[in-house]
Amino acid sequence: MKKNVPQNIKKWLFFTIPLVSSLVCAEPIVVEGVAPNEASKQEILQKMQIVYGVDQVIDKIQVRAVSAPNGWSNAVTQVITPDLKKVKQGNLKVQGTQVELTGKMSNPNDIQLTINQFQSIVQQPYRFKSQLTVNQAEQKIIDEALKNRIIEFESGSSILTASGQQILNEMAAALHKVGGKKVKIIGHTDSSGDASKNLLLSQQRANAVKDYLITKNILAERLSTEGLGSNKPLANNETAEGRRKNRRIEFAVL
């Protein structure tokens, strides 16, 4: 007999594994979405902290009085396993009774093993879907060129500083090494000021980086841009050092 699943479930909870591969430095995991109650939220956060560490989990879960499928909290916590740490540049998303894992893995042999593991964990009425690919060696080249440095701009603008240009000179050399691979340039800001203005500024800065790299003979069609504003912080925006780290440019090989 088919179980009835509430129709008002639009979005439950998904985990964002950092867009840029953690080959150079460990980046925090942003956990966001909707949980039906505080107890479920705390169970999920506790499991995430066990797997990734307390300092590496950023809580953006909202609690709302909504209906959940039977066993929802247990189904979510069961799929939070150490195997997730093998996945880079991806997402684990739980929406209603659909569990979806996407991302890249360093070892091609791990892909089927990971799929099998999750298929054994996810039980009816929940369904598992995956899209896992091999992590590209080119991303490592880009990450190592950036060396965890911040590409700086003039305050409140998209004008590159001299030090920012110097880093991009090195990035251009790295981009030449990865051949014709396409790369997304992602701009981020801290949370100071108006959110909509920060979103615009992050896009303008990503565009400025693209324009500069084009002057270094990187083909425009290889480069795309995205501005995320303050939506994906690396550090605590309550401190000056945290805000400095959050004002950054990232590069993702596509």
Tell me the series of helices and strands, N- to C-terminal. EEHEHEEHEHHEHEHE
Helix amount: 25-40%
CATH topology heading of the largest domain? 60s Ribosomal Protein L30, Chain: A
CATH class of the largest domain: Alpha Beta
CATH superfamily of the largest domain: OmpA-like domain
Number of strands: 9
* Uncertain residue ranges: 1-12, 15-25
State the end-to-end distance: 43 Å
Q: On the 0-100 scale, what is the average pLDDT?
A: 85
Reported for the largest beta sheet, the result is: 6 strands, mixed
Strand content: 15-25%
Detailed description of the structure:
With 254 residues, the chain is α/β, with parallel strands linked by helices. The protein has two domains: 106 residues, no CATH class; 116 residues, 2-Layer Sandwich (60s Ribosomal Protein L30, Chain: A). Helices cover 35% and strands 23% of the residues. The protein has a six-stranded mixed β-sheet, with helices on one face. The chain is globular and about 55 Å long. The relative contact order is 0.13. The N terminus is likely disordered.
